Amino acid sequence: MAIDHERNGLARSKAFEAAMQLSVEPTSRVTYHSQGRVLIIGIDEGGVLDAARRLREHLNPAMLLTTSGDAREIDGIPVLHSNGREPLIEGYLGRFRVTLDVGGKSANVATLLQSNWEYFDLVLDLGLAPLILAEWPPVGYFAPGFGDPEALDRAIEDVSDLKGEFEKPKFFSYDSEICAHGRSGIKGCTRCLDACPAIAIRSLGETIEVQPELCQGGGICATVCPTGAIIYTYPRPADLIERAQTLLQTYRDSGGEEPILLFYDDEAGAEALQRVEPLPGQVLAVEVDEVGSVGLDVLLSCLAGGAREVILLDTPALPGKVRRNLLEQLGYAHSVLQALGYPRESLRLAQAEACRDLPGDPMPALRPERIEGSNRKRATLFQALDHLNRDAPAPQVEIPLPAGAPFGEVRVDRDACTLCMACASVCPAQALSAPGDLPRLDFIEGNCVQCGLCELTCPERAITLRARLITEPQRRDAQRALNEEEPFECIVCGKPFATRSMIDNMTKRLEGHWMFQDESSRRRLMMCEDCRVIDMFRDGSDRKV
After folding, report:
1. Integer Cα distance of 377 and 407 in angstroms
2. How far is CA 19 from CA 138, 149, 246, 272, 486, in A?
3. Paired residues of 262 in beta bridges
4. CATH T-level topology, domain 32-168
5. In the CATH hierarchy, which fold is given to the domain comprising 408-484?
6. In the chain, what percentage of residues exceed pLDDT 70?
7. For the segment 169-209, what is each residue's pLDDT rounded down to a tens digit?
8. Cβ atoms < 10 Å from Cβ of 57
9. Confidence class of residue 436 from pLDDT cuts 50, 70 and 90?
10. Distances (CA, A) of 154 to 93, 151, 188
11. CB count, 10 Å around CB of 72?
12. Where are the extended beta strands (E) located within 170-318?
């Protein structure tokens, strides 16, 4: 059937009019204060001095030369030599701390310059290679490259404008209670740390910290977070899903056919689309701050809402870390779509030129369902998945996923497991639990994020993980026992306090220990804590058992 592009174009206009009426939950702001104190670093004294002179009209420059020499001034501009030591730069606009190793101790360059500064507001790095290697360096740090006059001119122009007070959105929210990074000294999930192109996330041991001044809104941290501990807030997933669903529904209601959703970022993506306009009338282009923030919950919601294809616009400006992690997430989605009989390429990362072509193998027409916007990632994703499975060409009960996917089951070797519950105590998603005082380990698969904390914590090495996706809601959300035993009762009072396997294991391990060679000491292993203490004092013994 031929597609009526004119009618689709009119339907698209009405869809965007409807989406414009939606409100968006605001996010908080991050503020920078810059007094214009700029440190210029480089090996070429002439080049560094020329940059300092050009900036002096608007800013307060200082120079750090990576050659040997003594501290001095040139034209009233303070100059320090690192004498071959590589500077360490930490911070962001208004608060850069630059240090050198002097005699095994960290020395503040601002202090060595004999200034009354503690921090620099800006850093212009004219070295042979950037000192900060992040794909997205901090706001206020510029490394135009050595020997590139045009890039240097742009950097000096940008640096000159950064004096005063500046604001940007706070792009994220973080809930440490459900973070799977670590528990009880065991390291678990590191997805957000590995994915961040701005190196704005650091480990605090059992939780992480996202530094809002370093965060530049890539959003990939929230996309790869398996629990939803990190949520992107510019916009929030609920707002983005609501916008996409409104576009799709209004487009259909206005007579549009074969809708394609295209997510693009508001800088490089917008420029790329200008080169290929006009787009076909069925393409609904959705501007986001960064395409890395569009996660699987949003993508699958769009397909469930009736999109025949969903495209994430790729550009050369997309950081390599973001691209790799988006492709990994799309890989999980492709496994699901293929298993259900849908075309894999209905979700894809593509260049702008590909957006002019109609999809060769789109999603089949299915009954669209409006997925309600939610900031609960897994709940939204499962709602979309359930709809896609109901109408799928090949409905599934269970879908195998690649290793490392954030969905799956925990398997327990019952012969090795002593029901010590160490695994349940570290589970951040409440997938594993101990029901009261019963010696039983319960599991809810829909909660499991495959972080590996349970596997690493188990003292008996009785746990293994298997990535998969259960499509039946009742089975996915059901609580089932992975292991259970009859409780072992205290031989004195009858109180249940352990399991038979735990007592047998402990008795075997301690049978050669000098403190457990007499019968009374071995008997106390079979007593609850209260009866054990009473028996010790009754026996007149002060030994600790």
Report:
1. 13
2. 34, 44, 6, 23, 59
3. 285, 311
4. FAD/NAD(P)-binding domain (3.50.50)
5. Alpha-Beta Plaits (3.30.70)
6. 97
7. 999 999 999 999 999 999 999 999 999 999 999 999 999 99
8. 7
9. confident
10. 18, 5, 43
11. 11
12. 172-174, 182-183, 186-187, 201-203, 208-210, 230-232, 260-265, 283-288, 309-313
Which tokens in the block code for residue 193? 């740390």
Q: Lowest-pLDDT range, 278-292, 341-355, 496-510? A: 496-510
Give per-residue pLDDT as tens, 107-161.
999 999 877 889 999 999 999 999 999 999 999 999 998 888 999 999 999 999 9
3-class state of residue 398 by DSSP: strand
Q: If 0-12 CB within 10 Å is exposed, 13-18 middle and 19+ buried, where does residue 151 land?
A: middle
* Cβ(432)–Cβ(440) below 8 Å: no
Closest CA to 18 of 294, 297, 242, 265: 242
Q: What is the Cα–Cα distance from 138 to 191, expressed in whole angstroms?
A: 21
Identify the CATH class of 170-232. Answer: alpha beta
Residue 346 tokens read as 């209905």
Name all contacts of 85-90 with Cβ < 8 Å and 24+ positions apart: 86/131, 87/41, 87/131, 88/131, 89/123, 89/125, 89/131, 89/132, 89/141
Dihedrals φ, ψ of 541, to 5°?
-100, 140
Residue 544 has pLDDT above 90, yes or no: no
Residue 535 φ then ψ, to 5°: -65, -35
Residue 234 tokens read as 């510019």
List the one residue out of 230, 402, 373, 220 whose CA is nearest residue 304.
373
User: Could you tell me the strand order of the sheet in which 309-313 lies?
Assistant: 283-288, 260-265, 309-313, 347-350
Per DSSP, helices labelled H in 266-375 are 268-274, 296-304, 320-340
Q: Which helix (H) or strand (E) holds 463?
A: strand 463-470
**Sequence ranges of the domains in the chain:** 5-24+235-394, 32-168, 170-232, 408-484, 487-538
Joined tokens for residue 325 = 């992690």
Domains 32-168 and 170-232 share a fold: no
Apex 30 CA angle, 24 and 32, nearest 5: 145
CB distance 88 to 41 below 8 Å: no
Angle value at C-alpha 169, between 295 and 302, nearest 5 degrees: 25
Instruction: Specify the 3-state DSSP secondary structure of 177.
Output: helix
Residue 524: left if φ>0, alpha if ψ -120 to 50, beta else—which one?
alpha
Residue 438: left (phi > 0), alpha (psi -120 to 50), or beta?
Answer: beta
